[in-house]
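Ticket #4471: structure export looks truncated?
Reporter: QA, pipeline team
Priority: medium

Steps to reproduce: submit the single chain below to the structure queue and open the exported record.
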Amino acid sequence: MRQFIRCFSPNAPLLAGFPTRKTATGFEQEIKVYQAEQPDLDPQKGLYINEWYQTLKQKESQVFFSKEGLRIFSKRKVDVEPVFGQIKACLGYKRCNLRGKRLVAIDIGLVLMANNLRKYLTRRTQK
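Actual output as written to the record:
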């Protein structure tokens, strides 16, 4: 059974209910809604809290800030933007003129292979 919670502050919000919302994917969320007893005195009309989401965020932050999580995240600090700049500047590839996922995947694959070959030849001639 759900209980209504009262905070200690006189103008503190009072738990008003537990409405459920459906997301675009059809998942049902239960949201706790806190509303002030005297809404004219409080600038904030309501506070909406999804406790399941808050629990998941807390678990994720514990995993992230663990030694293993920090070790894994430190490996992700690679910037991918230079690759797109090189493709635009060196290869002159600004946009894909094909339509359809399959054709675009083939086209971008060819562009990436050309970029990798360019890098390979540059490194090979420097030796």
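Status: closed, not a bug. The export was complete when the record was re-opened. Leaving a note from the reviewer for reference: The longest helix spans residues 101-126.
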